[in-house]
Structures are given as C-alpha cells and as structure tokens.
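Lecture 7 notes: from sequence to structure.
We start with the chain below.
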Amino acid sequence: MTFLGLSAAALGATFAVAGGATVALYILKLRRRPIAVPFSPIWQRVLRDKDASQLFSRLKNLLSLLLQLVLLGLIVFALGDPRPAAGAAEGRSIVVLVDTSASMQSIDVTPTRLDVAKQKVHELVSGLGIADRMLVAKMDASTVPLSTMTSEPVELGDALGKIVATDTRADFASGLAFALDVLRGAKRPEIIVVSDGDLDAETAAKGLDLAGTPVRLVPVGKGGKNVAITAFSVRRYPLDVSRYEVLLEVTNTTDVPAEVELSLLGDGNVVDVSRLSLKANERLPRVYADLGGASKMLEARIRLADGTRDTLPADDRAYALMPERRRARVQVVSRGNTYLDAALLLDEYLDVTTTRPDAYREDAPFDVTIFDAVAKPLPSKGGSLFLAPPADGSPVKVGKAVTDFGFDTWDRKSPLLRFMAVDNVQASRGNVFVPDKADHIVGASELGPILVSGSREGHPFVALGFDPRDSDLVLRVAWPLFVLNVIHSFVEDDASYLSAYRTGTPWHVPAPSDASVAWVRYPNGESHEVPIKEGRAVLFGEHAGFYELHVGAESAPPSFFAANLSDDAESHVTPKTELHLPGAKSSPDEGFHAGIRRELWVYFVMAAIALSAFEWFAYHRRVTV
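Predicted structure tokens for the same chain:
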C-alpha cells in the first residue's frame, strides 16, 4: 500500500492528535448539580439499581468510543489517498493527440466525428491506472496542449471541453514531434492518436525516433459521399483591369458519380445557379468570364442535387473578395494640352491634378507625373512620362532633330503599346534619343529611338521623342490607349493580392503601416487584437469565411479579407483504421488497455458515512448511551 495524499507519518500524527482529543472527551466526568431531597432513604433503592447497571453503562460508553475512533480512523486514512503498491509501480506516460482538422467535422457519425473522438478520449481517461499520467493535445495545423501531464480526471475532462474543430489540415509531423518531446525520458511512454486516419504517416515519421514509443490509432468515422469546392479565386483580366474573371473547381472525392447544384453569390445575392454532373473522383473546373452582379464579396455554395447532405459540410462553401482597384493620383506638368486632358478623362479611376511648370514640386505625393514638353527633376515617388522633353533635364539623352518620321519598329510585347497599332503613326518633327545601355527601346524610326523606357535611381520613366500634337497620334484611338497604358504600367496592382487566404497558414494582411495593432473580427463574430509589422497584420487563420480588419478609430471603415479551406486531402473523408509508422513500436491489432484506478479513499469515505449513520441509529435507540 502506498499513499499519494498525506504521508504515513502525517496520517499517524493526525490520528494520534484527533484520537487523543476524542478519548479525553469521553473520560471527562460530568459535574453533577446537587439537588436537595426531603427524605434520602427513598433514593437508596434507586442508587442500588444504578450500581447494578454501572458495568453495562461502561460497556455502552466503550462501544460509543470505539465507533468514534473507527470513524475518525476512516476519515484520516482517506486523507492519505491509499493505493495498491503494485499498481503504483506500473504507471504509464501517455500523450493523446486529438485530430481537430476539417475532416473531423464530418457528419457520417452522430453528431460529428470530433464528438465521437472526444467520447473515446473520455473512455481512455476513465481507464487510466492509479499511477498513469496523461496529456491531451489538439492537433490540426498546429499542435496545442490542453492539459498538463496529469492523472486527474477533472483536469483531463476540462481539456476535452476545450477541443473544437478548425478548417485546417492536420500536421501529423509536428504532432508526433511534440509528443516525443513531452515523453522524452518518461517511463513506459505511449502516444495515442484519435483521428479519422487521413494522416501522411510515412512523411510525418521521417527524422523521428519512434523505436521506443508505441503509437496507436483510435479510429473514428464510417465514411460517406462527399463533394467539395477545392479552388475558388477571382482576378482582374491582365489585359483589361476593369474586368474580372472567377476560377472555381468542384471535386467529387468518392468512387460513385454525383449530381450537384452550384450557386454563386455576389454581395449576398444569387448571381448564378448551375447543375453539374461529376464522374467518380472527377475534378471539374469552371471559369466565369466577365462576371457581373458582384462588386465586393463572392461566395460559392455546392450541395447534392437530390437534397441529401454530404459527409463534410465544411468544404461546401468558399469565399473570395473582388480585387479593389484603387484610384491613381496623376500630376500633369503642362502649360495646357487639350488632347492630354481628354485622354485622362477616359479612366474614372484617375485623380488628375494639373500643375504649372514653375509650381512643380518633386516631393509631391503622386503615383504618376506627366511632363508635357517640359523637363524637371524626377519626382521622389512614382513614375514619369515625358512628352517631347527638352535636352536640358531629360532623363534620357536627346539626340538630333528629325522630321517626317514614324514607327518603323516597335516592341509588340511591350505593355506600353498594348492594343495599339503604331505602324501608321506619322510625326512632323521631333528628336531621337540616345538611350543608356540599361534602357529599353520600345519604338524607333529609321533615324533612331523615339520611345524609350528605363529607370533612374529607382524611379521609372517613359520618354516620347515628339510632341503628340505634332503628329496624327492624337487623332487616333492609339493616343488615349498609350497614355493609359503608361499610367497602368506605373500603377501596378499589388502583386501579392489574394482574393482568399488559405486556412492553416500564417496570414500577412495589408494594413496601414503607421499602426502597430489592429482588431480582426472573425467569421464566428469574435474579435481579437493582432500585431501589425511592416504594414501587414499578422495572424494565424483557422476558419474559413469573411474577416473584418479594423485599424485606428472605431468609426473608421473596416477592410475585408476572405479565407478558404481548399484542401483536397481534407475533403477525402474516407476514414482509415490503421496507422503505419516506419520504425514505430506498434501493431494494427494492439490497442490501449485500460488500467485500474482503485481510488480507495472513496470507499473509506463511504464506510465512514455508513458508520456515522449506524452510530446515529444506535444513539437514538439508546444502545450506545
């Protein structure tokens, strides 16, 4: 017998003090109150009867004292939490990894696979031996311990209450590495994985020493039919930034054909509904060209056409945000040019400011600066377009003057000449350029380069060797196309823009660089503070849906971003019943065996309660008094 509560010495001291006090109370004599009687001989017979029963009274008092001492001993013994010594020497150290990835939200078992998994872990906790210790951790894209290494069922039960599923995939490699770190140096280590088995076990075991640690799988799930949205994104057309296209992929993950209904919602309103026939294990991509009916938020939903629910609802919805086109700030340094002003009016996303040459400031905050027949120092920000720049101040050296020329050669792949045909453009006068070695000649006449692009000290520029008003260019459609192409080449959309982030990865969401923290409202309505580093809000995403990013004052409008599961592995929900780990000490038919807790203190307390009830009964029946 061993004591896991108070030590044997402490128990003995406690019983000695409490028992001594109890005995002292029994041997104290009562101070009797004298009573005057009229004739004492009358009481002699009563006194003789009392002497005759004195031995029996002593026996009754001794029985009462014995009951009290036994009751006290049971209570003191329970404080020691006695356990069988043999069981205490057989303790195991167990790490339970509970799979909380997206596939555990499957409803092929009632109510979900994760709920069944939690019930199985509860059974494991109930089967712990008296010296067994267990740690419960959730495992999805990250592994998080939810309890300490303990044998207390209450703490382990609280850990089970914290387990919730996420819209991520399970990182089994990090889960195994975590479990091995926890069990390093422990006696009789065990790892138990409670999962539907969709784990890349062979990859996870690489580089890990599992030889001395058995790893066992507790399987959950029965399998079922599942269709999923495995890709969903939206982008601007590369050749026309005012139009959008949507790419969507639907996958049938099972071996039987499926009829599905696909709905596309824009800003909460249905913009398209279609019925699709999917073959067994088929991936079906769909492209929505020049999508209308949406300006900000897109959502795709899929369901089985027969009205039944598939196994995993989490991958039946996907989300995306339309790329927001920001307004470009354009400065025109000119003495007046009607043709240029007219070309700039064709794009509603341009904020145009006209500046006289003598009022030009190179530190002005513009995205694009157009120098019309003037040459000034390159601005500190943005790109510059020079139209017929004078020799003094031009970013590229101005060569000899030429007359009656046109574009004899040009770069047909240059974005500056997109949608344009310049072979019939003629100019009456201008200059050719003498470009630097690193400059790019976009167009040239037989006499030399007349359209050059390049960069000076990190500031991009485009230079045209003639005044458009001295040519027929301003009379052609090519003129506004050229101006807008140049502006768009300087004001490129953020190449890192994502219409939707992928769950289970760190996210770096664009945010104002002058802020240090932001508030993010999650799809479930919760709000959390996140840091901002180098103009990006940093957070780890676990759930699909639309998010709100709040920076600055509460009244400031939020920005939005979206996230999707989009994981083919999680959408394949057919469960596995075996876990093959190279080098692990386990076998498919070997499972967790329940120990025997034998918490004897409970029985001692129950005995004390029963004895107390008997003593109460005996007292009222005048047996012990």
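Points to note: The radius of gyration is 42 Å. Confidence is low (pLDDT under 50) at residues 586-591.
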